[in-house]
Write a structure and sequence with these properties.
The chain is mainly alpha-helical. It has a single domain, classed as Up-down Bundle (de novo design (two linked rop proteins)). It is 80% helix and 0% strand. Helix 1 packs antiparallel against helix 2, helix 1 packs antiparallel against helix 5 and helix 2 packs antiparallel against helix 3. The longest helix is centred in the first third of the chain and has 58 residues. The protein is rod-shaped, with a radius of gyration of 24 Å. The termini are far apart.
Length: 187
């Protein structure tokens, strides 16, 4: 009688235990994704705060380049206002990064601006922020990958389906293929 109860408890208990562990794992991954996105958002806001200072410094040297400078600020404001999905935000972020590259290319044409300590400090701070954004992006995308793996592989996909964890609910924060190309240096 007692061995039968033990066997019955194990047969019923193991699936319930698996269900609990899998559910808790899915919740934990989803929370990691949200935390990782908050880290990206913090770094993006840091970038947005640096850009006006960088543009103001450049304005003093490149007065006739106002279109480039105004474009950077307009895109910065557009990115700051965009609170959509990671894919939507990635679209505007790509435009801003391209515009910032134009600003740095502009600085190459103005040796006094390029040598300005304030501009150099802001540029270095922006480069550090970009590195932090890339790191946060990798962490976020890793969590999205883990979530998708867990919601799409058997048998955890059954638990995910039962408790409303759709496999494609979380989006990657994609990098533009142009950004993946190596920088071309010409002498």
């Amino acid at each position: 009688m007692i061995p039968t109860i033990i066997v019955l408890a194990v047969v019923l208990g193991l699936p319930v235990l698996y269900l609990i562990v899998t559910y808790n794992g899915l919740v934990a991954i989803r929370n990691h994704i949200r935390d990782a996105w908050a880290n990206i958002d913090t770094e993006l806001k840091r970038r947005y705060d640096l850009i006006p200072n960088l543009v103001e410094t450049a304005k003093g040297y490149a007065k006739h380049e106002s279109e480039t400078l105004e474009n950077v600020i307009a895109l910065r404001n557009q990115c700051r206002a965009n609170t959509g999905s990671p894919a939507e935000q990635a679209t505007t972020e790509k435009l801003l990064v391209s515009s910032l590259n134009g600003l740095f290319a502009l600085a190459e044409n103005y040796p006094d601006l390029k040598a300005n300590a304030n501009f150099q400090q802001l540029q270095e701070e922006l480069v550090n922020t970009e590195d932090r954004i890339q790191s946060a992006r990798r962490f976020y995308n890793g969590n999205v990958r883990d979530y998708r793996n867990k919601t799409q592989t058997f048998p955890s996909n059954i638990v995910a389906g039962m408790f409303g964890f759709p496999p494609m609910a979380e989006e990657f924060f994609e990098v533009d293929p142009v950004e993946r190309e190596p920088v071309k240096v010409k002498f």
